[in-house]
Write a structure and sequence with these properties.
With about 240 residues, this protein is α/β, with parallel strands linked by helices. It has a single domain, classed as 3-Layer(aba) Sandwich (Rossmann fold), CATH 3.40.50.150. It contains 10 helices and 7 strands. It has a 7-stranded mixed β-sheet with strand order 3-2-1-4-5-7-6, with helices on both faces. β6 (about 220-230) and β7 (about 235-240) form a beta hairpin. The longest helix has 14 residues, at about 165-180. It is globular, with a radius of gyration of 17 Å.
C-alpha cells in the first residue's frame, strides 16, 4: 500500500512535515472523531503512569499541539514540548496563550529534531512521546535520544498505535485504519492520504513489542506494556 506522505528513507522527514503542515489546524478535531474521544483517556493514562512529582522536569517529544505537554504541566512538572513541525507548534503556542499555568509554570515549546534532541545528557525526570515515535525516520534512534536526555531513575513513556495480538481483532482494527480512517482525511483535509498514512506507517513499525525490546536493550528497568483497546493502542514504560 503506497501513501504519498509515507516515504521510507531520506525523504521520510520532509513528507511527514508536509503532512502535519496540512492537518495541524484540524489535528485535534480529527483525533476526537476517529477515536471517539478515547485518545484523551489514553493520554491521561500515560500521565498517570508517569507518576509526576511537583517540580520535576519533563520533556514531551513530538509534542504536536500540546495535549500531553499541558497535562504534564497540570500534574506539576516543568515542561518542554519539542516538535519539528512549525505548523503544529503554532497551534500549541496558540493554546498556551489561554492555558492555565496553575502548576509547574508555563510550557516551553521548542522547534527541534527528536533524533537530535537539543538538551544535554541526563536533563529530565520524565520523557514522553505520544503518537510520534512511529513517525520518525529511525524510531530506535528516537528512543535512544529519549534515553540519553533522561536522568538515572527517569521514566520513559511511549503512547502509540499498537498491533493487537488477537488475529481477529487485529484484522478488524487494521481494516478500520485502512478503509475507514482515510475518510476523515477526505472530509476534513480534502485528501484521504493524510490519514491513510496512519496504516501505512504502522505496517513497518514494530509497535509495543518492538518498543519493549528496545527498552530492554537500553537496559531500562521496570519495563511495562499497557495494552489499550485490546492492543490497538499501547503505552510502553521503562525506567532508566
Amino acid at each position: 500500500m503506497s501513501d504519498k506522505f509515507y516515504q521510507p528513507g531520506e525523504q521520510r522527514a520532509a513528507r511527514v512535515e508536509d503532512l502535519f503542515a496540512l492537518i495541524a489546524r484540524r489535528y485535534d478535531l480529527i483525533n476526537d472523531l476517529q477515536s471517539l474521544g478515547l485518545h484523551r483517556r489514553w493520554k491521561r493514562a500515560m500521565i498517570t503512569m508517569a507518576g509526576i512529582q511537583p517540580g520535576e522536569h519533563a520533556l514531551d517529544v513530538c509534542c504536536g499541539t500540546g495535549d500531553v505537554a499541558f497535562a504534564l504541566q497540570r500534574s506539576g512538572a516543568e515542561v518542554v514540548g519539542l516538535d519539528f513541525s512549525p505548523a503544529m507548534l503554532a497551534v500549541a503556542r496558540d493554546r498556551a496563550k489561554v492555558a492555565s499555568a496553575a502548576a509547574g509554570g508555563p510550557v516551553r515549546f521548542l522547534h527541534g529534531d527528536a533524533l537530535r534532541i537539543p538538551f544535554p545528557d541526563e536533563s529530565f525526570d520524565v520523557v514522553t512521546v505520544a503518537y510520534g515515535l512511529r513517525n520518525l525516520a529511525n524510531w530506535e534512534g528516537g528512543l535512544e535520544e529519549m534515553w540519553r536526555v533522561a536522568r538515572p531513575g527517569a521514566r520513559l513513556l511511549v503512547l502509540d498505535f499498537g498491533k493487537p495480538a488477537n488475529r481477529l481483532w487485529r484484522g478488524i482494527y487494521f481494516g478500520y485504519l485502512r478503509f475507514f480512517v482515510p475518510c476523515f482525511g477526505k472530509i476534513c483535509c480534502k485528501d484521504t492520504a493524510t490519514h491513510a498514512y496512519i496504516f501505512a506507517s504502522l505496517r513497518s513499525y514494530p509497535a509495543q513489542r518492538g518498543v519493549a525490546a528496545k527498552m530492554e536493550a537500553l537496559h531500562c528497568r521496570d519495563i511495562q506494556v499497557r495494552n489499550l483497546a485490546g492492543g490497538a493502542m499501547s503505552i510502553n514504560f521503562g525506567r532508566k
